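User: Can you help me understand a structure? I only have the sequence.
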Amino acid sequence: MEDKTFELLTKMYSEFTEFKDSTNKKLDKLHEDVLRMEQDHGGKLQVLFDGYMQHDRKLYVIEQKLDALADKVDRHDIKIQVIEGGRK
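Assistant: Let's start by predicting it. Here is the structure, written out as tokens:
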């Protein structure tokens, strides 16, 4: 009876050890995949963010130029009204 118990325990230990090793290998692979994705996507996200910031700066410059043109048009409109008012 002791021999059968010992054999059963030995077999269970062996199967458990195989299961543990297999699980650890799968977890290591998963960890490597997660790290690779973080590095790949992290770089891509940084590029997208840089592009967004560049776009935002360019949009700000365009808005400033548009505001300056709107002010110039307003000044010209006032000058035209003064000139036309003086002709009456």
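Now, to help you interpret it: The chain has a mean pLDDT of 92. Residues 28 and 77 are 72 Å apart (CA to CA). Let me know which part you'd like to focus on.
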